[in-house]
Design a protein that fits this description.
The chain is an alpha+beta fold. The protein has helices at residues 22-28, 34-42, 47-72, 83-104, 111-122, 125-145, 152-225, 228-256, 264-277, 293-314, 345-356; strands at 281-283, 318-323, 327-332, 360-365, 370-375.
């Protein structure tokens, strides 16, 4: 059965919560635009004052628009806006900042901090770093040129705000990567479980349904022959069909219930996986249809206990499981049973289960290895 695994070569995105209150915090920090607004209001009788009011409000509006877009489009998590959009927004913000400085003078330089932060939001880290350095150098240079005094405080504010947003972006990006990894791991776990379930279901039903089909065809031919002896054989085959059908149905129900109950075909399927993982060569039966219904659970527990001991304690290179209508045997070529040991709690429980159905448990040391045989003729 072929299965399709998720394509890990394609970058994935997940809905990363970037904080519904982020833009409101950005709005709070617009408090520092109060100085340009107050200065413009004081000059409201002139064109420069009115222009300063309008430009400052437009600047604040565009800055908030960038934050709202950043949240909606997850720019701070796992992507940046298209270059044309980013450049358009940034150039618009720079133009409004320049107009504010031209209209209001030094007090309009407060906009530079918001310009630098917007650069961090809109562009990749390398480009954003260049823009932040440019904002710092430009602020210091313009202050010296216009004889506005030291702009060290403004330069520090630009650096501090930009570094803070860099840190927030890095944190959100890392959270996004973790969420993507968790989503991929969950998807792979589900896919692995589906594959395992399909494999085990095939092992449980495949041979049983084949035998049922063959026996049904044989019973039909025997019934059609008209020979009394053949009719007796047909009755026996129909009886086998009934038993096989009930056992297969019980195995499927247990498998669908999530393996809460043990089944012989399921334990053989698990034994194959466990031995392969332990690098132990396995020889396992292809069919368990001859096992009577009252022994199937006991034999399943025997396979589980025997294979578990092989994997954990035996240090074996080969393990052989044989099953027939009267007994099951798990044999390995490992260390064997320690001298004076009678087995652990697993063997004690197995003996109790065997006694309940009139079977016995025989553990024998081999040269080398160990044999665990359980059944009604386990001698």
């Amino acid at each position: 059965m072929s299965r399709t695994l998720p394509d890990m070569s394609t970058p994935r995105t997940v809905a990363v919560p970037t904080g519904r209150y982020g833009p409101w915090f950005a709005l709070i920090w617009l408090f520092f635009l109060g100085d340009p607004l107050l200065a413009a209001w004081a000059r409201r009788d002139g064109a420069a004052g009115v222009g300063g009011l309008v430009v400052t409000v437009l600047f604040a509006s565009l800055y908030m628009l960038i934050w709202w877009q950043a949240r909606r489009e997850r720019w701070m998590a796992d992507r940046t806006p298209p270059p044309a959009q980013a450049l358009g927004l940034f150039v618009g913000l720079v133009a409004l900042c320049a107009a504010d400085v031209a209209l209001l003078g030094e007090v309009g330089m407060a906009c530079v901090v918001y310009v630098a932060i917007s650069g961090v939001l809109l562009f990749r880290p390398v480009v954003a770093a260049v823009l932040v350095v440019g904002a710092v150098v430009g602020s210091l240079g313009l202050g010296a040129l216009e004889d506005w005094g030291s702009q060290a405080g403004l330069a520090f504010a630009v650096l501090a705000g930009s570094v803070a947003i860099f840190g927030v972006r890095a944190l959100i990006s890392r959270n996004a990567q973790l969420l993507i990894a968790e989503a991929e791991n969950a998807e792979l776990a589900v896919e692995n479980e589906r594959t395992r379930f399909a494999r085990d279901l095939h092992d449980i039903l495949g041979h049983s349904l084949t035998v049922i089909t063959v026996k049904a065809e044989l019973a039909r031919r025997l019934l059609e022959s008209g020979d009394p002896a053949d009719r007796l054989r047909a009755q026996a085959e129909v009886g086998d069909l009934e038993r096989l059908g009930r056992d297969a149905l019980a195995d499927v129900r247990r498998a669908v219930e999530g393996y809460r109950e043990i089944t012989l075909p399921g334990e053989i399927a698990r034994a194959r996986t466990a031995l392969a993982a332990a690098d132990v060569e396995a020889s396992l039966p292809g069919t368990v249809d001859d096992v009577p219904s009252d022994l199937r659970d006991l034999f399943a527990w025997t396979v589980r206990e025997g294979v578990t001991n092989v994997v954990r304690h035996a240090a074996a290179r080969r393990c052989t499981v044989t099953v027939d209508a009267r007994a099951v045997e798990v044999r390995d070529d490992g260390r064997g049973l320690d001298e004076g040991s009678a087995g652990g709690h697993g063997l004690a429980g197995l003996r109790e289960r065997a006694a309940a159905v009139g079977a016995t448990v025989v553990v024998r040391s081999l040269e080398p290895g160990l044999s665990l045989r359980v059944g009604r003729d386990a001698s």
